[in-house]
Amino acid sequence: MIWGIFKRDMCHATRNVIAVIVSMGLVVVPALYAWFNIAASWDPYGNTKALKVAVANNDKGYKSDLIPVRVNVGETIISTLHANDQLDWQFVKSDKAIDGVKSGEYYAAIVIPKGFSADMMTLFSPDIKHAQLKYYLNEKINPIAPHITDQGATTVVNTIDKTFAKTIAQVGLDLASSILHYSQSPQMAEYMRNLNGNLTTTADTLSGASQQVTSYSQLLGSANDIVDSTGKLLASATKAGKQAQNALKQGKSGATSLTSAGANVTSSVNTALDQVSGAFDQVAAKVNKAFDAIGKDSDTAASQLATLSEQISSGESLYDTYITSLNHMRESVEQLPDSDSAKQALLEAIDREITLLEAAKGDSQKLAQQLKDASTQVTQDTAAAERSRKEILNRITSAKQSISNVRDDYATNVKPKIDALASTVSTLISQTDSIITQLSGTADDLDDVTGDVGTNVTSIRSTLGAIAKKLDSSAATVKELITKLETGGNAGDGNSDGGNGGNDASSSDSGESDELRALATANASTLSTLISAPVALHRVSVYPIANYGSAMAPFYTILSIWVGAIILCAMLKVTISDREKAHVLGLGDTLPRVAGPSGPGNASRWGLRLDHEYFGRYAIFALLALLQGTLVCLGDMYFLGVQANHALQFLAVGWLAALVFSNIVYTLTVSFGDIGKAVAVVLLVMQVAGSGGTFPIETLPKFFQMLYPFLPFPHAIDAMHAAMAGSYGNEYLLDMVYLALFLIPSLLLGLVLRKPVIRLNNWVSRNLESTKVM
């Protein structure tokens, strides 16, 4: 069915010459539209030399004592613009320039005021003024011309800035060159020799004065050394006295601690030993009682023995208390002076006492363990229990003997030595304390006297040292000046004989002089040009476009394809008559009356469905649209010479755009009739403004930025740009896919959503026809 409709449409379109001419016109007109626009915008910024811009110079110039050269920046500007062909510069009077802008004779005018150069030279005065050009612009003549002339005015301002910087740099370099040449003259050499002689005498005088001051300071220093030695000796005596006093205080404290510790230990010994000895007697009695109960009540005996074991274990803390007291006493003894032999004897006695206590503590621990073991044996073996009784009683006797040994040793060895040592220390402290006090007072008095003398001498030497340093610094400064002057003379003539330091000039100073000479003898014009514009812009094009026409080609090409789709729907019928349907179905010239009223879908009972009608009539639209896209793209590349690095991709964009655009416009028209054509025109206008083809989308209002992704133009233009200059990654393929996706809503409208509005559309068409105007 689709093929049948397409064949009959092709026959009708080629039936006569007029039909062929119209068909060819439908293909050619969109291409002409694109080519004229692309050719017209091929290189607009290369033809700006025809734009007339007036220039009027009223500058009076400027001359000052600082720069003895008359400066007239206005004349320099006029000279520069005579060689500039970016615009059609018209050099006229200021009145004519302003009047010409008003009348439209000139697009713009630049007027240089009278005090322009004087204002620029205020850079070297405290009262700086900003030099200003007067720029007159007629903005109603053309919307683009003001931007072009603005660029020309900017060029003038940049030229002024560079010229001013170049002039100042050239004057400075000329001045430096003059000074260097004067420094190489014989007169300057004589001045330098006299100056060197005077400076050398001054430096020697300053050095001699510095040496005299230093000698006097050294003489005072010798006297000060004697005073310092005396002061140090007295300070040592004072320090020794203070240390002795501290030692005596520590000895006194140690003796007091020793006496206190001895009393505490004696009390602890008597209390502890009495408690332990009495406890052992009670334990022996309880042990016999417990073992006597064996056989009668073994469990009771075992319980009593276990209880005795715990009591013996708890009594071990008495040993620890005694040992702790002895350790405290030992610490007190160690604080006493080391010279006393009684101290070491007492320390040895205390250590022996601690050893005996630890042995006694060990006997108690063993006794507690035997009692604990016996408590478990009495219920098992009577004979073994009897042996344990004997061992326990023997262990009790041994423990009591250990206690007696501790008591006897303490009374015999430790206590007498404690009393003797404490008495000896107290006597020594009493004898030496008064002597040390007298020595400290005498040393303090002598220290005050030597301190005053040393302070006065040090202050005088400090003042003399500062004077000597200043004299040496002044002499060094003068000598450094002599060296630099001699270096400058040698750099000037290479053989200076003034002064004695000419051969000692440093290599760095010589290098600086050579650089200054090279700078002054270089081409001043070249250097001043470099200073006025030290930075140059190196433009690197990424995905370069040959010219402005090629850059605008995608926009105008895509626009012309949409226009071509609208023209097709305006010139060709989108609906199929009943007569054509009958011929396609082979039913003659008319459909049977049972078909009902004419309109889309009325022949579906004979097999010609609504989708057959849609695609059958669209086929000729698609063919003509493809021819339009092919012609405009081939003409862009081979007639106008538009840049296309990938010609086949460029053609593919044109073909896809032709299919998508023609389908959208065809669907709108077939669904809504003339209203659909109006919608297609509205979409055209929206896409011209919001596609980003002329201005970047970021510069457009927010509404167009939001609408941008939902329009087909931007994707088609981006794909064509990628085909022309190169694609970044999958950029080209993605844009082609996005463009093809617009077929989905278009086909959905034409094949599905169209059905409910057919009757409404027919009703609207009948009412429009009834007006006899629409």
UniProtKB/TrEMBL annotation:
It is found in: Membrane. It is a multi-pass membrane protein. Residues 489-502 have a biased composition (Gly residues). Residues 487-515 are annotated as: Disordered. Keywords: Membrane, Transmembrane, Transmembrane helix. Residues 27-216, 615-751 form the ABC-2 type transporter transmembrane domain. InterPro entries: ABC2_TM (IPR013525), Phage_infect_YhgE_C (IPR017501), Phage_infect_YhgE_N (IPR017500), T7SS_ABC-Transporter (IPR051328). The chain crosses the membrane at residues 17-36, 553-572, 618-641, 647-666, 678-697, 736-753. One of its GO terms (cellular component) is membrane. Its main location: membrane. Coiled coil: none annotated. It holds the Pfam family ABC2_membrane_3. One of its GO terms (molecular function) is ABC-type transporter activity. This is ABC-2 type transporter transmembrane domain-containing protein. The gene is pip.
